[in-house]
Amino acid sequence: MSRTPRHTTPHQRRGWGRRAPIAAAALAALLAGSLALPATADPSAGPTAMPSPSTASQSAVATEQKLNEARAEEKLAKSSVAQLQAALDNLQTQVQAAQEKAGLAAEAYDAAMVEQQAADKAADAANQAKAKAAGSLQAAKATLARVAITANQASTPLSALEPFLTAGGLTQARDEAQIIYLTGTASDRAAERSKVAEQQWKSASDTAAAAAKVKQEKSAAAKRAANSAQSAADALQSQQQQAQTKHDEMVTVLAEKQNTTKALVEQEQQQRQAAANEAAKEAAEARAAAEARAAAREAAQQAARSSTSSGSSGGSSGTSPSGSSTSGSSGSSAPDNGTPPSSGSSGGVISASQAAAVLAWAKAQIGKPYVWGGTGPNSFDCSGLTSQAYLHGAGKSIPRVAAAQYAAATKVSFDDMRPGDLIFYGSSAAGIYHVTMYAGGGMMVEAPMPGLSVRETPIRWSGVYGYAGRF
After folding, report:
1. Numbers of helices and strands, H then E, in the chain
2. Residue 366: alpha-carbon gap to chain centroid
3. How far, in Å, CA of 361 to CA of 24, rounded?
4. Are the CB atoms for 355 and 418 separated by under 8 Å?
5. How distant is the alpha carbon of residue 89 from its chain centre?
6. Each residue of 252-268: b (16+ CB within 10 Å) or e?
7. According to DSSP H, which parts of 307-379 are helical?
8. CB of 131 within 8 A of CB of 204?
9. Is the pTM of the predicted complex or chain greater than 0.70?
10. Nearest to 365 by CA among 349, 387, 341
11. Cβ-proximal residues to 115 (8 Å cutoff; 6+ apart), any chain
């Protein structure tokens, strides 16, 4: 497949935070005065009436003055549009950087959630082991108590109970009667050992619970950071929308100024043509009068000459204009840039039919909301969607986080992508902040960002990193 060239500009990803207040202030000042342009009366609609010969030249001069004013206003409007466009470009750069930062924060939150889930499982396992051990110790204590009571009633020494106080000792006794007739005094030692074991299990459980709490705090901090980054991106996007509205309004004003200028140009041309027609008419009338006077003189002279002599004279002359014109044509055809290079990928990946099933599963989630940490079934984040699509569509387990997915994937060129391959966004392998799935035909499926739902959309080549990924 062919694709639009990508342009990466590292400076777009740096310094957006400190530029935002300056850009916002400059933009506000610009927007406040962007529409304060001088008003110009619209020319009359429809054909301009032909002025009388006595005023044609004066009207042409007046229209030329208005035209100069309209051109000045058009120039001012063009300048305002250019400044607004520059502000929009700056905001777009900041919005892109903010969205990238929000994406990285969301990925960090996903990783923290994975760690928290593992810690929670460890804490649950420790608590279950603690409860099981406590139950075993309570049963052992109850058995020892019964033995001690029986031995005491029978005046039997308990020194021989020690073999049964070690691990598994009680279960090795065949019956309670065996224990009752043993001798020695080890009940105190058994109680002490029970207490130490109980404390050890409690310490392990407390340690696991403390680790789980640390992971919970870490995931909560990651979520707050992600929320903060997304809020910053949303604020910049709102500024961008406001600036776009003002830009569109100024473009409309510019169009009106350009229409005014065009109408005045046409009116000036009509008035200049009227003045030229007036001058030509006056010149023709003057020539006709002069010719009439000359003809009258010639007739009088001829009459005087014919009274004394006879004769005639005459002459004729004629002219005929001629001219020629030439015309030509030229043409061009689109250049052939050749077949784009292609590259192949090695084995170790799912089949094309499995990849199609992965894509079909991802498409089935279209319309479900984006939620940080979402892995379905009702909501997803970007890497949650791709990992679950491979799991449910092809039964293949891939890493949960976007950067880890890129690291584990088989790399293929974008020209060799097939539906189901993954497309990653970021400035480096460690800075990947978003992942989507190629859907064929220049389209992709993605869980984009908070406030939007899973969707199929044209591929955005800006910000794409490295290679496509195949599993």
Report:
1. 8, 8
2. 18
3. 43
4. yes
5. 14
6. ebbebbbebbebbeebb
7. 352-363
8. no
9. no
10. 387
11. 215, 218, 219
Q: Is the Cβ–Cβ distance between 34 and 84 less than 8 Å?
A: yes
The answer to whether 408 and 398 have CB atoms below 8 angstroms apart is yes
Q: Rounded to a whole number, what is the distance in angstroms from the first to the last CA of the chain? A: 19
C-alpha pair distances (Å), 409 with each of 104, 361, 405: 19, 19, 6
Check if the beta carbon of residue 177 is closer than 8 Å to that of residue 156: no
Q: Which amino acid is at 50?
A: M
Sign for the CA dihedral angle at 376, 379, 381, 382 comes to positive
Sheet of strand 443-446, all strands in order from the earlier edge strand to the far edge: 410-412, 468-470, 422-426, 432-440, 443-446, 455-458
Check: CB of residue 401 under 8 Å from CB of residue 111: yes
Does an H or E element contain 416, and which?
A: none
Three-state SS for 436?
strand
84, 289 Cβ separation under 8 angstroms: no
Per-residue pLDDT of the chain (471 residues; tens, 9 = 90+): 444 444 444 334 334 343 444 445 544 544 444 444 444 444 444 444 444 445 655 676 677 788 788 888 888 888 888 998 998 898 889 988 988 888 998 898 899 889 888 888 888 888 887 787 777 767 766 776 676 667 666 665 555 555 555 545 544 544 444 554 444 455 556 567 666 766 777 787 788 888 888 888 888 898 888 888 889 888 988 988 898 998 888 888 888 888 888 888 888 778 778 777 776 777 677 777 777 877 887 788 778 777 766 554 444 443 333 333 333 333 333 333 333 333 333 447 999 999 999 999 999 999 999 999 999 999 999 999 999 999 999 999 999 999 999 999 999 999 999 999 999 999 999 999 999 999 999 999 999 999 999 999 999 999 999 999 999
Q: Angle CA(380)–CA(382)–CA(383) in degrees, nearest 5?
A: 100
- How many other C-beta atoms are found inside a 10 Å radius of the C-beta of residue 424? 25
User: How big is the chain by its Cα radius of gyration, in Å?
Assistant: 46
CA dihedral 231, 374, 381, 88 (to 10 degrees): -20
Which domains occur in the chain, in start order? 11-33+52-294 (1.10.287), 352-470 (3.90.1720.10)
> For residues 133 and 154, is the Cβ–Cβ distance under 8 A?
no
